[in-house]
Inverse folding.
């Protein structure tokens, strides 16, 4: 029911957007798009997916073949398209536990750590770009404070020294009853995971810096989308507004961010894109999730394969 509701909300938002901008104009934008930049922007999904698979292999610090990591990344994209709350990514923890012998708690913590590292890298770029572009716009400064605050929280959670997490433990101590107890238990398990990750500092820092580079590529892909529709968006402005658009797509209201992300793109890029061009960029932004999901469909069966079978593929 929740999934059906999110699909309905996405369809309603898209219907409103496309009706207000005239679907014919959106089609015209694609018809007159720059074919070189359009192909380049779409093909950028390939190296970004390969890089994400390599980062997963680096993060897991295990002898999982790169091919198996790639299959897991692609199949998780497929599951994310049909399951709520990014459960496809969480399912990777099940594979690590059942097929590669990871302790269950560490497997789940690892995939959560991966997603938090992604979010931290996105917020880092967003904070830098928003500070640069906010100017006298008080609303953008509110967004900047929110993005920077969330980045600081994630940085404390993932920091290589336990003292960084003490303010969080102190704050949890003031929370009532079961909520405080559960958060305290999570922080204890999380500390074990963070200590495990940072036990090899060189590899850990390489993984962190690689994540930051990957997200520079993801945000840069939005800039390529705007080039495809003949817009001249400054790169730093793109970093800021692509970050906010991606965050809008993470709101638990729509299916895979479809609709909410499109509306954010039309709003934040209005200085450079007409509403029709913004809607077209929204379609291209959705392709970032749709293309890996389609490519991963044949590999979903890996989640039910026999133990050890992935290691031979």
């Amino acid at each position: 029911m929740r999934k059906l509701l999110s699909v309905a909300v996405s369809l309603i938002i898209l219907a409103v957007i496309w009706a207000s901008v005239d679907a014919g104009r959106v089609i015209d934008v694609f018809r007159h798009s720059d074919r070189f930049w359009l192909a380049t922007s779409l093909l950028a999904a390939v190296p970004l997916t390969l890089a994400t698979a390599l980062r997963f292999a680096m993060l897991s610090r295990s002898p999982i073949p790169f091919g198996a990591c790639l299959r897991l990344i692609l199949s998780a994209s497929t599951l994310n398209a049909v399951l709520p709350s990014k459960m496809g990514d969480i399912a990777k923890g099940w594979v690590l536990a059942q097929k590669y012998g990871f302790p269950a708690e560490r497997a789940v913590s690892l995939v959560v750590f991966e997603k938090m590292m992604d979010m931290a890298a996105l917020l880092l770029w967003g904070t830098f770009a928003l500070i640069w572009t906010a100017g006298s716009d008080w609303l953008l400064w509110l967004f900047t404070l929110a993005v920077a605050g969330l980045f600081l929280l994630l940085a404390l959670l993932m920091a290589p020294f336990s003292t960084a997490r003490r303010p969080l433990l102190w704050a949890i101590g003031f929370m009532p009853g079961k909520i405080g107890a559960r958060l305290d238990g999570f922080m204890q398990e999380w500390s074990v995971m963070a200590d495990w990750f940072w036990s090899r500092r060189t590899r850990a820092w390489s993984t962190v810096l690689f994540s930051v580079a990957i997200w520079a590529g993801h945000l840069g892909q939005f800039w390529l989308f705007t080039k495809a529709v003949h817009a001249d968006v400054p790169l730093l402005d793109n970093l800021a507004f692509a970050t906010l658009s991606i965050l809008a797509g993470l709101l638990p209201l729509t299916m895979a961010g479809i609709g909410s992300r499109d509306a954010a793109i039309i709003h934040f890029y209005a200085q450079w894109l007409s509403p029709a061009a913004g809607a077209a960029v929204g379609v291209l932004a959705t392709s970032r999730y749709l293309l890996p999901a389609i490519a991963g469909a044949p590999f979903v069966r890996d989640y039910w394969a026999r133990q050890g079978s992935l290691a031979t593929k």
